[in-house]
Amino acid sequence: MADTQGIEKVARGIVAAHSAGDWPGVRKSLAPNSVYEEYGTQRRIEGADAIVAALQGWKTAFPDVNGVVNKALVAGNTVALEVTWRGTHTGPLSTAKGTVPASGKAFVLVTAWTMDVEGDQVRNSRHY
Length: 128
Prior knowledge:
128 residues, alpha+beta, 47% strand, globular
């Protein structure tokens, strides 16, 4: 039987570490060969270092971004989080089609983030 509290703790820890800009903390929570999919951007990112770099890109564009976990549901080794992200677009956002300059606009975005956890690391995650 899966350790539901441990699985949820790992997932919540990634959200907290991303919010704090704690990249070693994010990296520690990712399996070396983990996969991260962003449905909004259609990106599929492989490998812990590449995932950290992608999350750093979001933090560069939205340096004050903060994620709050509203709800969490664990089934087996998978956790689903409902996360509310708040921030302001004050930095450049690099995309596949070029760089989007800072708009100065604040945002609130509610997302779902599912993570498959093995031991104390995320193996696969999907951010909707």
